[in-house]
Fold:
Amino acid sequence: MKDHSVPLKLVALLADGEFHSGEQLGEVLGMSRAAINKHVQTLKSWGLDVYTVTGKGYSLPAPIQLLNEEEIVSRLNQPNLSVIPVIDSTNQYLLERMDQLISGDACIAEYQQAGRGRRGRQWFSPFGANLYMSMYWRLEQGPAAAMGLSLVIGIVMAEVIQSLGANDVRVKWPNDLYLHDRKLAGILVELTGKTGDAAQIVIGAGINLAMRSEGASQINQGWINLQEAGIDIDRNQLAATLINRLREALPLFERDGLAPFIERWDMLDNFINRPVKLLIGDREVYGIARGVDKQGGLLLEQDGETKAWVGGEISLRPDN
Structure:
């Protein structure tokens, strides 16, 4: 694995948002100004916007809060956490280590070089701007018992973010969080296991906290971050609270399925009782969203009849 220790020390020095001269940084890190500039280029490749001003030095546009492993672990009910600042993908990290993990083991990162979203999409993951987290869980009842799991993750995430001050966060079936009708967070559930065997599951979550629009042009839908909405959340507190709440909710889901969560979903559903378009492959289905059933299927009302759908993606009808 590549050694990222020097650029990470450089980020820590720049995290206050003040200007630091190349000479000063070089003294602290024991290297030339030319070497500092090389590491600044690494930070830029991680999605950090580093200002370079002749005579003043280097600065970030604003202070950033770095993940603090000690602080996060101190807030956890059980430790079992890896904090890896620079990683290919938090999900991939856990998937490659499943034979060594126990349910609830988690991993968080500052930056993902190859973050993944649903349907093979890339998850844009600039350094220090958002929260990237994955958790392992083993379902003894097998893959079929995982039906509706992404909804439970969404409920827990929305409730946690609301409790930290973002009152208007809502869930979008089957696995996103929305704020003001724009995407705030995504969930990726990756599952292995055959019928009759336990299911091994890695749950990934990415939450937009302070992501800047520069460089985010690859995102193909309307998105929002909490900072834009005027909400400042402590990343370390968010990570710890989310991990604790997921570790509490998943045993309940394991025991009782989705039933205990249906009412909580309805209270958080961004699309409930609104006209929506359901896209399944090339097919478009129009109707009124009426929540979800006990298997996690979308309830869609058409011409007075309500039917459950288990695949696809929804969006508001264009005329809304």
User: Anything to note?
Assistant: The helical segments are 5-14, 22-29, 33-45, 69-75, 90-95, 149-163, 235-256, 262-268. The chain has a mean pLDDT of 90. The radius of gyration is 21 Å. Residues 304 and 316 are 19 Å apart (CA to CA).
